[in-house]
Write a structure and sequence with these properties.
This protein is of the alpha/beta class and 506 residues long. The protein is 44% helix and 11% strand. Strands 4-5-8-9 form a four-stranded antiparallel beta sheet. It has a three-stranded parallel beta sheet with strand order 1-2-3. The chain binds one RNA strand of 75 nucleotides through strand 7, strand 8, helix 6, strand 15 and helix 11.
RNA sequence: GGCGCUUUCGUCUAGCGGCUAGGACACAUGCCUCUCACGCAUGGAACACGGGUUCGAUUCCCGUAGGCGCUACCA
């Protein structure tokens, strides 16, 4: 086989939002393409007119834009192999269906769905294949005239592949090695439906991959059982010499329980399974997305890259460029990977840690505004610097800083029980006077020194004083160094909170 | 049911005949400390089972069991 430029594709079906497993597949295709200086194409497989969902295609394109996965060719980009939407390639498929029919590798079948259903019910393990096709209503059992008559009458038929029996079909999978399946277990799959003049996945897929000069098919493991059928199709078309190499990726499994991760798992389990938020056009149901949940796209990419693939080094945080350098199908694992949302959160934290205070403050500003507050950037940056290392997401910053904006409305029971002691009210009253005497609240270190000296002079226990004080300011035993908080809320607010606490707590 | 894929800590995984079976997440403990975190240190935690092959199997082969997938005029 001549050296060909690497060309891979991601070919989703627009039946809804892109699910995270699909994103992972697309990512691996992207990494593989870029690693080998090849092209990645985006093809829309909308051959199922029944399940088409408006908006899904735009959603897919926007998702990849957010994730930083770029395509070289395809829907929304264009290219030499257009069109890239299968519904626009009807005429192309018809030509190839005819080729298969003419060469005797396929035949027309007139069996109605009801008839087939009946057979499946009455005959155990029924499948449309070499052993049963002669009892079906098709161009193999009907006379040529009868077939022509039926077609002329506009009777709906399907075209089925004619799988020859008793043949071992080999699929060389780049991840799993050689997989052999006997053609006896394959059925005569429907390749084309006259009703909507569209091919099914199997036919469209092979024709398009061939025409678009795809060199490697990297897809989910759920396709492995039909891979032999695809090999057969390449053979029947006479394209065996340029048949792409296959790689079937392990599936993403539910975090708990059984089965592969599905579209419905996300909101049930409390984490997104979609890159972007999605509103179902029919039901209006909203499904959460990683973007809206506060994830950085780099974190999602990094997390997904390590599900079913290992770089071979003990580092775990990688840029996209590093992933591209390191990627190889040989290092993909074979078994399904359970989706561990906690690890995903950790990745986001890692990426958050790499951002500057400025960047984080800029992302935090709209959240503050939404809560009805306004602060200048310097103040926000100051707040961010104090609490940034205790969150996974920017949005969690609000919980960590809310007491810097508003006085506590209640005091945490547990903290009170442990930290508010008998002497506390008296000490707080004295502290009030000490703080009142402070001139410049921005002199954090100096003020701390003053208070510490006062505590020492009175021979109070530092922990007793500071913890009680913290409760009056924050409302609980949490938060960063207290003098930084004071600096932010200011003297008047400090004294106000102190006296209010003294009133309520006694 | 049939066919296929798969099986190392709770989870993601390293390992490619000889290792005290390594790392990360999560968890626990300790240190730090005005609290909560961060950080640092420490700890518990795995080769599904049974046969082979071999001087020697987590590693190779065969079974069994479990898991997953496919089995549509869906992809």
């Amino acid at each position: 086989m001549a050296e060909r430029k690497v060309r891979v594709r991601f070919a989703p079906s627009p039946t809804g939002p892109l699910h995270i497993g699909g994103v992972r597949t697309a990512l691996f295709n992207y990494l593989f393409a870029k690693k080998h200086g090849g092209d990645l194409l985006l093809r829309i497989e909308d051959t199922d007119s029944q399940r088409f969902v408006p908006g899904a295609e735009d959603y897919i394109i926007e998702s990849f834009k957010w994730l930083g996965i770029t395509f070289d060719e395809g829907v929304g980009i264009g290219g030499d192999h257009a069109p890239y939407r299968q519904s626009e390639r009807r005429e192309i498929y018809k030509k190839y269906v005819k080729q298969l029919l003419d060469s005797g590798h396929a035949y027309m079948a007139f069996d109605t769905p009801e008839e087939l259903e009946e057979k499946r019910k009455s005959i155990p393990n029924f499948q449309y294949d070499a052993h049963t096709r002669m009892s079906g209503v098709n161009s193999l059992t009907l006379s040529k005239e009868e077939v022509e008559k039926r077609v002329a009458n506009g009777e709906k038929y399907v075209v089925r592949i004619k799988v020859e029996p008793n043949e071992d079909i080999e699929v060389n999978d780049l991840i799993r090695g050689k997989v052999v399946i006997n053609s006896n277990v394959l059925d005569d799959k429907v390749l084309y439906k006259a009703a909507d003049e569209l091919p099914t996945y199997h036919l469209a897929n092979i024709v398009d991959d061939h025409l678009m000069e795809i060199t490697h098919v990297i897809r989910g493991e759920e396709w492995l059982p039909s891979a032999p059928l695809h090999v057969l199709l390449y053979r029947y078309f006479g394209w065996a010499d340029t048949m792409p190499a296959f790689a079937h990726l392990p599936l993403l499994l539910k975090p708990e329980g059984n089965g592969k991760l599905s579209k419905r798992d996300g909101d049930r389990l409390g984490f997104p399974v979609f890159p972007l938020q999605w509103t179902d056009p029919k039901t209006g149901d909203v499904s959460s997305g990683y973007r809206e949940s506060g994830y950085f796209p780099e974190a999602v990419v990094n997390f997904l890259a390590l599900l079913g693939w290992n770089p071979g080094v003990e580092k775990e945080v990688f840029t996209m460029d590093e992933l591209i350098q390191l990627f190889s199908l040989e290092r993909c694992s074979k078994a399904g990977a359970r989706f561990d949302y906690e690890k995903g959160k950790w990745f986001n934290k890692e990426y958050l840690a790499m951002k500057s205070d400025d960047e984080i403050a800029a992302l935090f500003a709209p959240i503050v505004e939404e809560k009805g507050y306004k602060r200048d950037m310097d103040t926000l940056k100051y707040m961010v610097s104090l609490v940034r290392n205790r969150v996974h997401f920017v949005k969690e910053l609000w919980y960590e800083t809310n007491y810097m904006f508003e006085a506590p409305t209640e005091y945490d029971e547990k903290s009170l029980k442990k930290r508010w002691k008998e002497d506390s009210p008296a000490q707080m009253r004295e502290l009030y006077a000490v703080l009142e005497g402070l001139q410049d609240y921005s002199a954090v270190l100096e003020n701390e020194k003053t208070v510490l000296e006062w505590v020492a002079s009175k021979e109070y226990k530092l922990g007793d004083v500071m913890n009680a004080f913290r409760i009056t300011i924050v409302g609980a035993a949490r938060g960063p160094q207290i003098f930084d908080i004071l600096n932010i809320i200011g003297k008047e607010e400090t004294l106000r909170r102190l006296s209010k606490a003294l009133e309520i707590l006694k």
